[in-house]
Specification:
Blueprint lengths: L1 E5 L6 E9 L2 E11 L8 H15 L8 H9 L3 E6 L4 E10 L4 E9 L8 H16 L4 E6 L2 H10 L2 E2 L9 H5 L7 H6 L8 E5 L1 H22 L4 E3 L5 E3 L7 H15 L1 H9 L10 H5 L2
Helix pairs in contact: 1-2, 3-4
Length: about 290
């Protein structure tokens, strides 16, 4: 059983869970945070576990050297999970492609003893948030064969896509050479393989949010009648909500000005040269 706690000040995620090791219950506290230069001593352990995990699954993770992971840690482009006493638990890092047009959250790995604790989900959430902060306009993508990772990605807003929608950067695809399925990838012209491609497009995500908000507002407006109230002269007016619709609000203000200044304009019209063209209501309302 696990329970997740978040520190708003540091952004660190702490997972409390109870595990059974050698029939003894031990309380574990896992910390998920952005990696730093102080974490470079974990690099060798992480790369070894990546290789062993790939062999066990029969699929590949792009092989990286300890020095490569150390650089990611120093740049603040990685997320690491540890126990409170410093035992390594999990890891993931960020890679950018095509001049930061695309970003991949790569190398997600969890130590065998800590799998199925929820830590992988927290690492993915943390690295996704970090990617959005560092590369807000980039499309975030991933290739995976794991159903658990697909579920996490889907919850974060990723959608399954064809390989043609991923980066064309040759350096990215070279990373697949260490995978046992590389021959399959190349035989398909890099259009398909054992992995499922998933992509988060920030522009599409923003459009969907706006569309959902608009649909919600329209649904609420359809359910509730417009309230009617009387002004100080006893004249009833419809009260409308203009928040989020600037053009409509501007037109309403112009119409309101026209009504309020109507009597003043009548008096002024008497002193105006008849040859001067008068403004129409339409002109005032839509200028």
């Amino acid at each position: 059983m696990s329970r997740t706690l978040r520190s708003s000040a540091s952004g660190t995620v702490v997972i409390l869970f109870t595990t059974t090791f050698k029939k003894k219950l031990e309380n574990q506290k896992l910390i998920v945070r952005v990696a730093t230069a102080d974490d470079t001593h974990y690099a060798e352990t992480i790369t070894t576990e990546m290789e062993e995990s790939a062999k066990a699954r029969g699929t590949g993770i792009a092989k990286r050297s300890p020095a490569y992971l150390e650089q990611k840690m120093k740049e603040g482009k990685a997320v690491i999970a540890t126990t409170q006493d410093g035992t390594w638990v999990g890891f993931c890092y960020i890679e950018a492609w095509e001049h930061e047009k695309y970003v991949a959250n790569s190398g997600l790995i969890v130590a065998p003893a800590f799998r199925k604790t929820g830590v992988a989900t927290e690492i993915k959430k943390k690295i996704f948030k970090l990617s959005r902060e560092k590369y807000p306009a980039a499309k975030i993508f991933g290739l995976t064969t794991g159903l658990a990772v697909m579920k996490i990605n889907s919850d974060l807003g990723y959608e399954p896509v064809t390989y043609s929608e991923l980066t064309t950067d040759e350096e990215f695809w070279k990373g697949c050479q260490s995978c046992v399925n590389y021959e399959i990838l190349m035989s398909k012209g890099r259009k398909n393989c054992m992995c499922t491609a998933m992509l988060f497009d920030p522009a599409e995500a923003e459009a969907k949010i706006k569309a959902a908000e608009l649909a919600k507002a329209e649904a609420q407006a359809a359910k509730q009648p417009e309230p009617v109230h009387a002004d100080h002269e006893g004249v009833t007016h419809r009260h409308r909500e203009f928040k989020g619709n600037q053009k409509l609000f501007e037109r309403w203000l112009r119409f309101k000005q026209f009504v309020l200044l109507k009597s003043f304009r009548k008096k002024e019209a008497a002193s105006v040269d008849p040859s001067q063209k008068r403004r129409s209501l339409l002109g005032i309302f839509f200028w």
